[in-house]
Amino acid sequence: MRTVGVEEELLLVDPETGEPRALSAPVLARATREDADQQVFEKELHEQMLEFATHPQSSMESLHTEIVRCREEAAGHAEGLGCTVAALATSPLPVSPAVGVNRRYQWMEEQYGIATREQLVLGCHVHVSVESDDEGVAVVDRLRPWLAPLTALSANSPFWQGTDSGYSSYRSRVWQRWPSAGPTEIFGSAERYHRRVADMVATGAVLDKAMIYFDVRLSDRYPTVELRVADVCLHAETAVLIAALARGLVETAAREWRAGQEPADHSVSLLRLAAWQAARAGLTGDLLHPETMLPLPAKAVLEDLVEHVAEALRAHGDLELVREGCARLLREGNGAQVQRGLLERTGSLRDVVTECVRHTQR
């Protein structure tokens, strides 16, 4: 059974005003003092962010338990310093992001300028184990058209600098400012994948392999493929849904590769359009169908996504979890819909943030 791990980036906010707080360094120091053996939390690009990574898990129940525990621990460490955490992929309130003080982040600020200074966005990255780089690249090639629906499901960033962006996942649009971000062409082999990465690093436009921000890539640290298209999800159960679908997609793609089935030959241009449509509409409009690249209602696309991975989900015992999770999001809304509903009800972005703090730890 393939293992799955999740990395979540959380926003540090004032519990009263909802404003982002640049306190990641003292929060991390406190976490290290209180639990030096765990090393769960990590620093991120901006001081208003805190990241954690789960252990590889085989069961979605165990993954859910660990995500909830990590969120609770993050909140506990933050509350000792007068802030808390919110699973929001962008700050609804205006913010002046503070770039972290280390050589890597300072290089990024010098190299990319305003794109680095404004890049306060928070994602959910899912790692799924693979047997080899050959299998991993075969999976990368075959996952390409199925990634946009994951963005739509996870969409949790409708607001930007105090205004409605008009997008469900504006995080994903801001993320595209990085020169190495986005969908990729078909590689065909691990050798071609690694050659392409090496060529990109050799340009000097990116610092190293870790700065290759493909929508899905081989991990440089673990024997996994890493899916990077999801917003950090407001609710832990949605993060688990994304993780279950990610594992189902990886297993399905690996089976297709072993059976000699070629990947869909969609152009990068069409894949960019599919990603844009998912970011814009979320679950409230049409998505581009992964097989035809033609618009269909989100509900129909999600049904076909689940059908596409149903055999793999059933093998992992995740089919009902995924069906129920998709139905719940279609019924109750993703994070973007919840945030907009909160603003409509309260009229205050501050109240949106403070309410989302409660959602984060549910």
UniProtKB/TrEMBL annotation:
EC code(s) of this entry: 6.3.2.2
Domain of life: Bacteria
UniProt entry tagged with the keyword ATP-binding: yes
Annotated NCBIfam families: gshA_cyan_rel, PRK13517.1-1
Similarity comment text for this entry: Belongs to the glutamate--cysteine ligase type 2 family. YbdK subfamily.
Enzyme class: ligase
The keyword ATP-binding appears for this protein: yes
Keywords: ATP-binding, Ligase, Nucleotide-binding
SUPFAM superfamilies associated with the record: Glutamine synthetase/guanido kinase
Organism: Streptomyces thermospinosisporus
Upper lineage: Bacteria, Bacillati, Actinomycetota, Actinomycetes, Kitasatosporales
Protein name: Putative glutamate--cysteine ligase 2
